[in-house]
Amino acid sequence: MDSRKLTPTTMPPSSTASSFSLFAAIRPLDRSRTIRDMIAGLQLAAMNIPQALGYTKIAGTPVVTGFYTLLLPLIAFAAFGSSRYLVVAADSATAAILASGLSNMAPVASASYVAMASVVAMLTAGMLLLARILKLGFLADFLSQTVLVGFLTGVGFQVAIAVLGEMLGIEVQAHRTVDQFVAVVRNIEHVHLLTTALSIAVVAAVLGLHRFAPRIPGALIAVAGAIFAACHWNLAGHGVAIIGPVMGGLPRLAMPVMTWREVQPLIPVAGSCFVMIVAQSAATARFYAARHHQLLDEDADLVGLAAANAMAALSGTFVVDGSPTQTAMVESSGGNSQAAQLATAAVVAIVLLFLTGPMQYLPRCVLGAIVFVIAIRLVDVRGLRDILRESPGEYALALLTAAIVVLLGVEQAIVMAMVLSLLRVLSHSYHPQTGILVLGDNQTWDLKPPLPGTFTEPGLVVYRFGAALFYANAGLFSREVLDLAGSGAPEVRWVIIDAEAITNIDYTAARVIRDLHRRLETAGIVLAFARVAPSLASDLARHRLIGVIGESRVFPRLHDALAGFARSHPHETPPLA
User: Fold this and answer.
1) Which helix (H) or strand (E) element contains residue 530?
2) What residue ranges of the chain are covered by domains with CATH 3.30.750.24?
3) Cα gap 103→318, rounded to integer Å
4) Could you tell me which of 304, 342, 300 has the C-alpha nearest to residue 321?
5) Is the pLDDT at 48 greater than 80, yes or no?
6) Burial zone of 534 (CB within 10 Å; 0-12 exposed, 13-18 middle, 19+ buried)
7) For 404-415, what is each residue's pLDDT tens digit?
8) For residues 486-510, b (16+ Cβ closer than 10 Å) or e, as one string?
9) What angle, rounded to 10 degrees, do the helices at 92-102 and 145-168 form?
10) How many CB atoms sit inside 10 A of residue 254's CB?
11) pLDDT grade, residue 572 (50/70/90)?
């Protein structure tokens, strides 16, 4: 069956068979489609190899580790993953998290630094596998799109500032983003003109080709041209720094030996990478599965991500992630399965075996310029503009997240991003929409602000509470009901709680309702509940509130509650009979 004809995009949680079905994201094989995938893989390699080298600049690892992220990790995810499009390789966000966490623990690009990066990748793989076993894929939903846009925007600014010194030929020793920017400004008179001109030319070429000829691998052309220029005109002799020898050959599989004391500081770094990987990979895989109407097993993707990071660790490179930009490259090139990623891995293997020699002449500023372009693309101006137009409060949250990245660091920001996302959800529940139902002129219900003196009908207040009732918002619920019940003439006889949005109550809220009923009963006011869902009815019974309120005062429909009020006060005319 053609997977494009399948309408479900996510498999049910109980569907575990495909989690252990090898190469499900490639099968069924079709000759013509496989050829298209192979061509897309070649194009991805041409576009992605220079970017992968740039990611090593962000991560602080040797250049050759960028090649390694496009080799065994791609094969591992193709073997175990479910998404036919998702490219799991080096990514700017996780590379920035890694550098932020490790830069103070060992010299950048040193053997000990690379060893710690490999251990972080293995720890991340373990967390991803544990998330699969415990079915923790839902954690991807705890980073809101708003916070994610702000986070990546902050990473873009941080990364761009980090490579400014290299692009200008200025020596910068600082690690913090603000200090790096200050160092560049203070030493601006030491700019190396040839290095700066080369950097500007690369940025202009890559951005120009991306704008006017997006299928042409601008970064690859820039790298090849810079290597040729460095050899032909001896740029190193004119003061342009080059990257130097690049180790060739396939990676040797090994795992660094570290003590538990050495591993412990790496766990928070791995945790931050884990959160970003789960959130970004899931969002990207869901988007492309929905666009192409393909089945997606998120449990299998967690296994694939775990396998990819385990292979990254064993091959001596850093964490890999589901990359939105690289996935978009595959789709735009015509790829339709993980066969494209396998083709990319084959090209990278050939480069490692036969073509690393010329790489030693690559100017460092060219890598910096490619990273600068990556950083520019991370700043989501359109996304920020849309958020500002639709939700100014969330726009402020996005800017705050970006500021935290720049001022405090990426690792701290990922934790703060989750906290801010959860606090925003909690704030909606803490102060939900409330009001009094009043019948409008067109015989439909209007929700009026819960101000004393507002009534549904003489003697009647129908109060709507727009969230589940729990310990944090129960006080608001009680205060507003008491204010409305004591609001004066005409005298309130009944308060009906429109409980359509109250799906459940907790222990604290149950005690608040019990106390509220007592106080209203003392004042001669009836407390009733309408539109009570089965889940709420079960909670009311469990907390023994049915006997307190009275079974005759708990109604499945608002119509029934209004009729109950009418029977109790026949001289009143209910809004609906």
Assistant:
1) strand 526-530
2) 434-568
3) 14
4) 304
5) yes
6) exposed
7) 989 888 777 777
8) ebeeeebbbbbbbbebbeebbeebb
9) 70
10) 12
11) low
Instruction: Give pTM, 2 decimals.
Output: 0.75
Backbone angles phi and psi of 434, in degrees to 5 = -130, 165
| C-alpha pair distances (Å), 334 with each of 20, 34, 42, 327 | 27, 11, 11, 11
CA distance 215 to 232: 28
Q: Which residues lie closer than 8 Å to 248 by C-beta, 6 or more apart?
A: 352, 353, 354, 356, 357
Q: Residues, the chain, total? A: 577
Alpha-helical (H) ranges within 134-241 are 145-168, 177-186, 193-212, 218-232
Q: Is the pLDDT of residue 575 over 50?
A: no
d(CA 80, CA 12): 18
**What's the chain's Rg over C-alpha atoms?**
30
Do the Cβ atoms of 210 and 220 come closer than 8 Å?
A: no
SS3 at position 192: coil
d(CA 147, CA 150): 5
Of 136, 185, 141, the closest CA to residue 165 belongs to: 185
**Which residue has tokens 């060739």?**
248
Q: Which amino acid is at 235?
A: L
| CATH node for 434-568 | 3.30.750.24
Give the DSSP H/E element, type plus range, for residue 461.
strand 460-465
Q: What three-state secondary structure class fits 140?
A: helix
